């Protein structure tokens, strides 16, 4: 990858992580012992399916979660969960140093 492509990829990831709803979705998925249906995530967040799905699409496009079909349902699982937890922890430390 070129430097420009690397920066575009990093920008997409940071954009995805830059929203509190998407962070809540990621943490929920990482805390679960099994993949979750989007409807369960929407119910937990007290949001409608369409709103959650738009956030899920951003997370999927950034390579942070996997979305797959089970019957007529869409199921979510995190990718690189430990890396995401590490980034969240580092962001918290960074925020405290300001």
Q: Would you count the extended β strands for me? A: 3
**What is the CA–CA distance across the termini?**
33 Å
Compute the CA-based radius of gyration: 14 Å
Average of per-residue pLDDT values = 92
Protein structure class: alpha+beta
Biggest sheet layout: 3 strands, antiparallel
Q: Order of strands side by side in the largest beta sheet?
A: 1-3-2
Summarize the amount of helix as a percent range. 55-70%
Shape: globular
Secondary-structure element string? HHEHHEEH
Count of helix runs = 5
- Give the low-pLDDT segments: none
Percent of residues in beta strands: 5-15%
Describe what this molecule looks like in 3D:
With 98 residues, this protein is of the alpha+beta class. The chain has five helices and three strands, in the order ααβααββα. The chain has helices at residues 3-17, 20-31, 38-45, 49-61, 81-96, and strands at 36-37, 65-70, 73-78. A three-stranded antiparallel β-sheet has the order 1-3-2. Strand 2 and strand 3 form a beta hairpin. Helix 2 (20-31) crosses helix 4 (49-61). The protein is globular and about 40 Å long. The N and C termini lie far apart (33 Å). The relative contact order is 0.16.
Keywords:
98 residues, alpha+beta, three-stranded antiparallel β-sheet, globular
